[in-house]
Amino acid sequence: MPSGRPETPPSVSDLKDEGSPGAKHPGEVNDIPDATPPSTPPSPPEGNKAQKILLLVSVFLCMFLVSLDRTIISTAIPAISNEFNSLNDVGWYGSAYLLTSCAFQLLFGKIYTVFPTRPALLASVFLFEAGSAICGAAPSSVAFTVGRAICGIGAAGLFAGTIVCIVYIVPLHQRPKIQGAFGALFGIASIVGPLIGGAFTSNITWRWCFYINLPIGGVAMVVIALFLEAPPRDDAKLPLGKKILKLDLLGTSLLVPGVVCLLLALQWGGPTYPWNDGRIIAMLTLAGVLLIGYAVVQATLTSTATIPPRLVKQRSVISALWATICINSGNYIFIYFLPIWFQAIQHATPVSSGIRLLPVMLSTVLGSILGGFLNAKLGYYTPLAIFGSCLASIGAGLLTTIHVAAPASHWIGYQVVYGLGLGTCFQAPNLAVQTALPQADVPMGIALVFFGQLVGSTVFVSVGQNVFSNQLVKRLAGFPGFDVGLVTEGGATALVEALPEGVRAAAVVEYNEALRQVFLVGLIVTCLAVLGTVTLEWLSVKKPQAEKLGELEKGVDGKGAGEQGAEEKGAEEKGAEEKGAEEKGVEGKGAEGKGIEEKDGEKKGKK
């Protein structure tokens, strides 16, 4: 029944809600409220500039520690294994960290969408610090491995948490510069990590490679606890039990063991056990069953899914995931096998081979910084993503041409071309996720991108290792004195040195050809990254949040911005028509009432 006064016209946000997939339309019952994203929080508030700088520094420190932790251990491993007499456990020092960081990455993405950002980020820092303390004080190899596993869990939370923190601190149009600095941070950590680890191991003790994390992480925790302010969530008042139920416990119970089985099979297959070994086959089979079960859970239980279907239906998310898997897979292949080329082909020492890798490291840092500033200037990340992936592909192609007598100008120049391309496009997937998704879905999107980075690089390093081993066996089988066992058990130079001196020169040529086949794998996956970058949507990072509502909705239901705008315009016109009809009805009713009163007055006068 009309109230007698015109209704307030719907706001733009109301129209947005009506056009969203989760809105209830006449005759439609929405019984899965959690299948739609929560409302988009507002843009970062204008707060105290000093507080923001402190927060940014703390977030950068957290990410630097995580990046450093992945490389600082490389030069400390000999001293650690000597102290614990644990040469057979060396592989687990890296694998334990990698397994847990991969397995828990998506879970932390879900945690950041359900729980407040500050306690979730603090818990991640605490886990990383606790793992570092255990590693530093470890009395045995087993305790050290447990500490590395805990560090990996904390790192999984920090990967996603630091980017989520930046989303709340930095406006979208300023994030390309910050993302560029993040990429540079990874490169710098890769350069200084082994140097710091070697300095601690030689001059103090290897334990300080992990103790160094404690004071820095402690300061970061204090700053985050005092100054990080994140917008409240729609479900902030939900009881703890209901929040835990939203964490997709069933999916996580399938994903974690599935990822662990897959990574263990890839780590052990070839070097440790033959690929036809029953243990490898069993782990691969179990991984396949568990991961298929996880996919079924995500598709059916959409209200609590870790990866909601709406996320994988968004074009930019799929393109970003594809690009980041390919970019990082190619990068790890070259970073892993170029030092082997320097040592086996050019007879460089391990330290010298690390120094010869500086061109790609430094050019990646430079490309990342330049890419951040250019993305901010252009307002679009897609052009540089395409340019960077194409340039990296050219550099990767050049690296596949190196030969035994390649001069320094070649392998330095090729690394620079590859590194500049890599740095330019390295952060584009993260920016794409932040720009294309509603802010409430950004944590899950970021976690998905990091998950792709970790799993992709692990898979393709294993692929490269198996290609390398098979090529060596194939090419050196006819040489006198060749022993297949040296391929899996010998060092980078032991295989060639074990052959008679008269055939070593020819063996080095074949060794070089085997490495070129591995570099060809890196070239292929780097070229495939172009497919991801060219299909990224052209979304602006300069538009204010309010102007991006149509584009953000596209990340949810796949509609184009123009189509969404047309719907909003139609809704506005419809609302205006309804308002006019109501006002007309009110006026008509008023006129009708007035006419009746006048008629009654005339009758009364006649009487």
From TrEMBL:
Q: Which InterPro entries match?
A: MFS (IPR011701), MFS_dom (IPR020846), MFS_trans_sf (IPR036259)
Keyword entries, A-Z: Membrane, Transmembrane, Transmembrane helix, Transport
Q: Point to the regions of Basic and acidic residues compositional bias.
A: 566-607
Topology with regard to the membrane? Multi-pass membrane protein
The protein's GO terms of the molecular function aspect are: transmembrane transporter activity
> GO cellular component terms?
plasma membrane
Any coiled-coil ranges, and where?
Answer: none
The question of whether Mitochondrion is a record keyword is answered with: no
Q: Key word Ligase present in the record? A: no
Q: Where is the Major facilitator superfamily (MFS) profile domain?
A: 55-544
Pfam families named among the record's database cross-references: MFS_1
- Subcellular localization, per the record? Membrane
Stretches that traverse the bilayer: 53-78, 90-108, 120-140, 146-170, 182-204, 210-228, 249-268, 280-297, 317-342, 354-374, 386-406, 412-433, 445-468, 518-539
Where in the sequence does UniProt note compositional bias of the Pro residues kind?
35-45
Q: What residue spans carry the region label Disordered? A: 1-47, 552-607
Supply the name of the protein. Major facilitator superfamily domain-containing protein
Q: Which organism is it from?
A: Staphylotrichum tortipilum
For this protein's source organism, the top of the classification is: Eukaryota, Fungi, Dikarya, Ascomycota, Pezizomycotina
